[in-house]
Amino acid sequence: MSWTDERVTLLKKMWSEGQSASQIAKELGGVTRNAVIGKVHRLGLSNRTGGEPAAEPQPAPAAPRAEPRAKAPREEARTGEPEPAAEAAPQAAPETKAASVIPARSKIIPAGQPLPPQPSANEISPEALAKVSEVEKKAKKLTLMELTERTCKWPVGDPATEDFWFCGLPAQQGKPYCEAHVGVAFQPMSSRRDRRR
DNA sequence: CCCTGATTCGC
DNA sequence: GCGAATCAGG
Q1: Do β-strands A155-157 and A164-166 pair in parallel, antiparallel, or remain unpaired?
Q2: Is the CB of A73 under 7 A from strand C?
Q3: β-strand partners of A165
Q4: pLDDT band of A24, cuts 50, 70, 90
């Protein structure tokens, strides 16, 4: 496979959307994530800050090459790159209609089984809920059959309707949900403290 | 172990 | 230019 115009276009699109190199590679087919990453760099869009070039001055003009080639171990010397890479999380809206985001508890729960924990809104941190609502937009919306060992199995919607799917985003290693859903699924004891009953 | 991107360098 | 191998990190 070669980097045709449309393949590059798709690459750019997905990369700017925040898709991972491996996801892009799968989508494109015929290439590995390494190929994707390599291309991304050659295209000069390694900096995912969609907008600006983030002008990065070239401080150190490559120092003298002590020992040239040779099978010697890689030179880890990074001439210079303070770049804190602004990880500005677009948390924004604190109160994102979170409530509607919680997986609806159907009235027809079979014999009460493994449905994921479905805490009530009032006992989850607003941040976590906000995160969930954000993530939901990017959810893969998988069907039961499409879930795998490593996809988020958080259910969304009412199982009794067509509007039901599973998150499907990459799950946290060892956990059944993606980062965002792990956040609302597993809470520290402290938060459910005075919930005596 | 799973995954991520970054870099090098023979091709 | 390409991308496997490798590195570094979560």
Answers
A1: antiparallel
A2: yes
A3: A156
A4: very high
